[in-house]
Amino acid sequence: MAQWQEVQSLANACLERVHQLYAGVALPMVVRQCLAAWIEDQNWRQAAEPLSSHARMLFHSLLALLDNHLGSLGVGDEDFMLKHNLRKARRDLQSLRSARRGLPTWWTTCCRRSGGSCAWGRRGRR
């Protein structure tokens, strides 16, 4: 979560670049915000390797965490839009499961868009 907190405190010009990075990525910024600690603790580089079973495992974990987060939100107006956006993100992510290009390719694409490190997580552990 420390990385995400740093991102949020960047100068406006840099924040615009962050918004551009997330504009075309299948993982919306709202999901990055809600699952920041978990996302930053994963090995995304391993998930981007060809034929990686790690990608599939992370994908299913991501969906489960989204479900948990959705279940923990209240019923008030302040959570209405957040719930809507998270539900939409979950549906969009689920559609990747049947996409022709597969999950490892999706991870790789996201990593490439951010200059070699994942736009939403660690650069990878060694």
From TrEMBL:
Give every STAT transcription factor protein interaction domain span.
2-110
Q: Name one GO molecular function term.
A: DNA-binding transcription factor activity
Cited PANTHER family: SIGNAL TRANSDUCER AND ACTIVATOR OF TRANSCRIPTION
| Keywords assigned | SH2 domain
Q: What is this protein called?
A: STAT transcription factor protein interaction domain-containing protein
Single GO biological process annotation from the record: signal transduction
- Tell me the superkingdom of the source: Eukaryota
UniProt keyword annotation of Ribonucleoprotein present:
no
